[in-house]
Amino acid sequence: MTRPRPRPRLRPKLRSGSLALLLVSLFALVPSALLAASRHSEGPDHVGFGNTITIDEGQSSGDIVCAFCTVRVRGNVSGDIVTFFGDVQVEPNRTVSGDSVVFGGNLGLGEQSSLGGDLVLFGGDLSQASTATVHGDRVLFTGGGWLLILLLPLLIPIGMVWLIVHLVRRQRYEFPAYPGGRF
To answer: 15 lies in a domain?
Structure first.
């Protein structure tokens, strides 16, 4: 009885083109990771949903991201502020070093306050003191009408779903009989 020969183990061959691609990818990713680490903001980052984020006097913060809430800056923010359907209030003599994006909310800048980056305000109002400064570019779409235009395409499918649910429930509901069988 003869024994079957063992199968030779296959080793993947690393082609010279694959090795070059690996080295190029490595050299491309290392500088970008170092750049991201050097840009990191000072202080802890804050994320909120439906509550108030307050940076008190004497505190510093990194990036702040907030949905359906309010951000009150009484200290200094070294990162960016992004709010979605929330307000931002920067107290007098305070600085936000990064960019600020306010979608569907209001932005208030107190006396001598400063925004170091760009400002994007969509669907809200800007209340800026005369001595407050924005050092970057401004993109302002003030007023709530912009939100209605943006959300209008969503109202059509929502209305269609509501209509279908209403019609299905109406067909399944049995109306009670009146006493005596008369109307």
So the answer is: no
Whether 87 is covered by a domain: the verdict is yes
d(CA 183, CA 180) in angstroms, rounded, equals: 9
Number of domains in the chain: 1
Q: For residue 63, which of 37, 44, 86 has the smallest C-alpha distance?
A: 44
Prediction pTM value: 0.61
Determine the pLDDT at residue 18: 53
Dig out the tokens for 107 from the structure: 């932005």
Residue located via tokens 């359907």:
85
Per-residue pLDDT of 126-160, as tens digits, reads: 988 899 999 989 888 887 777 777 778 888 899 99
Cα 45 to Cα 57: distance, rounded to the nearest angstrom: 16
Across 114-149, b (16+ Cβ under 10 Å) vs e yields bbbbbbbbbbbebebeeebebeeeeeeeeeeeebee
Q: Which domain holds residue 96?
A: 46-142
